[in-house]
Amino acid sequence: MPRKTNDYLWIAVFGLLVAFGIPWFLWGSTATWAGLPTWLWWHIGWMVLAAVAFAGFTRGAWDRGMDIDREGTDG
Amino acid sequence: MAESALPVQLSVIGAYLVVALVVGTAAYRLTGRDAEDYYLAGRSIGTVVLLFTTFATLLSAFTFFGGPNLAYAAGPEWILVMGVMDGLLFAVLWYVIGYRQWLIGRAEGYVTLGEMLGDRFGSNRLRALVAGVSLFWLFPYVMLQQMGAGEAIVGLTDGTVPYWAGAALITLFMIGYVVLAGLRGVAWTDTIQGVFMLGIVWVAVGWVLSSAGGLPEVSASLATNRPEFLSLGGGVYSPQWMIAQAVTIAFGVTMFPQINQRFFVAKDARVLKRSFTLWPALVLLLFVPAFLLGTWAAGLGVSVPEGANVIPVLLNAYTPAWFAALVVAGAMAAMMSSSDSMLLSGSSYLTRDLYRPFVNPAADDEREAWLARIGVAVFATGTFVASLFRPGTLVQVGDTAFGGYAQLALPVLVALYWPKTTRRGMLAGIGGSQLYYLAHVFVPATTVGGVTVFGSTYLTWDFALYGMVLSLALTIGVSLATAPDVGERTERFSVGTGAD
């Protein structure tokens, strides 16, 4: 079912966001860009990406897993 | 500098406190006398206020002084831990636990976590256990704020004003504030302080950078003096440690009385949605500059006296005295407002979950209100006395409290979603993991047959994580092995038709 697929997709997105909140592939890297460590730039980009993904979730998939009918909760 | 700047510093801090007090008084006049209004501001909190009031309770001594201290001592990777913890994991839990609690609380009219669980499982014992555990771990965290304030004053005035005076000031102020204003006052001041801190931390970054010669200069001195700070990982920052910190704190935060109670106060679902989306952005805007300041201080060779915090010392060295005082006043006010929220929620746990059900079910509102306020005063005085002994650093004390709350999170999560959860399962999951955790905090590490028990890690992973696994296993295992008793009301947690 498309709705079910959509649910798994969101779980995967959240999982990925959390898993790479720390850029493990940059472990031990001392590279810098514009005076700040590269991994810090990753953090900045990742947080922006997370905010965008979360905004998408509240638009299209909010209430998933809550077992409720949608009307009356968007208040 | 300290001698001549002292009147300036003290008057800035004084002025800030007066502003907070005025806001509190205004909110007090709007607040009705019933519990739902006092504790939950009539469930009418909007996006900005909800976001900042939740954020401000996180924006405590732990994050504002403890975090930069850690960055100063060990490097800036703490930024990543905060990102995973607050920006990502907590945001997801905000939906998974928070939104569901909001739906249930709105339908059933709950004010506290213990009340919600006690009603669902028909058990006053469970209600008391949850409240008792929550109050127990609240103690070190309130103490942390007092320690932070004491250290802030020492750092700002170069020790002219002693540690105990800073801690005493914050204690008196927060008792007065909570006794006067309810959640509405606390939430308003949180918002003002949150916006203020967010702005001023960036001003601080700009000011420090320009007086130290610009970003290239500061980065170069960091690369020369502390090259290891630029690389990801190393020192205290192992993957195991970073993951354990992020996970235990994120889960722990959801069970903090003052955060958990916030789940009940949103005006409508839209408020929760917007707050959810804004989490990562807010984390980014506040913590990156705050922790970079701590990191740069290390590169610039700023030396921090024993028992002081790096932020006030750095600002005293690179910005005018009044500005340093303003930041410290803001940070102290943020700590107070965290403590206010904690004491307010703590007092609702005390009166609604312990006093009402066990001591005096017939207590009228006036009596309960008095008891709540006396409870706040006794609790805050107790934490003040304990804070004078300085039992550990800010991060250590905070960690212990977060870990204790984290043990509650998984049983609650299971109860919220799994209808087969039983009362015995909850009692076993919460009770068992708390015993395990307490034993590890208080029993000294010993080696039995080559294996260290009651130490801080097992197989390099933090003991608090094993406690969380234990809490999950016990809750599910015992629930499967036992049948629900009469009086357990599964339908309390079914929030809708469940038809689709």
UniProtKB/TrEMBL annotation, chain A:
InterPro entries per UniProt: DUF3311
Residue intervals passing through the bilayer: 7-27, 39-57
One Pfam family in the UniProt entry: DUF3311
Keywords of the record: Membrane, Transmembrane, Transmembrane helix
Protein name (record): DUF3311 domain-containing protein
Organism of this sequence: Halobellus salinus
Automatic annotation (TrEMBL), chain B:
Keyword annotations from UniProtKB, A to Z: Cell membrane, Ion transport, Membrane, Sodium, Sodium transport, Symport, Transmembrane, Transmembrane helix, Transport
Transmembrane segments: 6-28, 40-66, 78-97, 126-143, 163-183, 195-216, 236-256, 276-297, 317-336, 370-389, 401-419, 435-457, 463-483
Record's bilayer topology term: Multi-pass membrane protein
Gene Ontology, cellular component aspect: plasma membrane
CDD domains referenced in this protein's UniProt entry, alphabetically: SLC5sbd (cd10322)
GO biological process: sodium ion transport
Coiled-coil region list: none
Similarity comment: Belongs to the sodium:solute symporter (SSF) (TC 2.A.21) family.
GO molecular function: symporter activity
Lineage, top ranks: Archaea, Methanobacteriati, Methanobacteriota, Stenosarchaea group, Halobacteria
Subcellular localization: Cell membrane
Name the record gives this protein: Sodium:solute symporter
InterPro entries from the UniProt entry: Na/Glc_symporter_sf (IPR038377), Na/solute_symporter (IPR001734), Sodium:Solute_Symporter (IPR050277)
